[in-house]
């Protein structure tokens, strides 16, 4: 039981909750516990978001797809984490990415009725969820107003960062050179030169249709 208390306090939606309130939550809330072996899927893109999943331990592989399905980005999400809480309510209540176990994972989940009860009864839980959704909305709201760089390198960095779930760690972009050139409104030759320069600096590696970035935070 003490281990569950400690794990909950690490999760974004439970940070700041008092010991007494946490004791009430553990005693009254119907948590579902899940063990996910490596390479087993958790949820898929377009699947209905009916449960709020919390990653307690392990690492998930996250895959995001372009609407055209001409390219995709693969990255990792490590515990503790909440899986797309911004899609639990609202107009589009479906996951927008594939989540698969990269390593053996432990998760817990809450169905919608339990989440609504926690929102009604616990102010800190309510504020944490609002903060989580607000940060996402504010970040996305600023994107159209950012000044666009004329530098091809910065265009590529922005292209990658805007499509990643997290802004650090290992990323794999699976895209053809001509598709990347089209997305950045550049020639294929200029794209090739830029990527080769970044590879020479040790910031990424390129192979046929695959761009691997070991540490996104170093790519500037």
UniProtKB/TrEMBL annotation:
| Record CDD domains | CAP_ED
User: Keywords of this protein's UniProt record, alphabetized?
Assistant: DNA-binding, Transcription, Transcription regulation
Question: What's a Pfam family this protein contains?
Answer: HTH_Crp_2
Q: Which GO terms describe its biological process?
A: regulation of DNA-templated transcription
The secretion signal range is: none
Q: What is this protein called?
A: Crp/Fnr family transcriptional regulator
Q: Does the keyword Transcription apply?
A: yes
The record, for InterPro entries, names: cNMP-bd_dom, cNMP-bd_dom_sf, HTH_CRP, RmlC-like_jellyroll, WH_DNA-bd_sf
Name the domain of life this protein comes from.
Bacteria
* Organism this protein belongs to: Prevotella fusca JCM 17724
- Specify the Cyclic nucleotide-binding domain's residue ranges: 13-119
Alphabetized GO MF terms: DNA binding
Query: Keyword GTP-binding, does the record have it?
Result: no
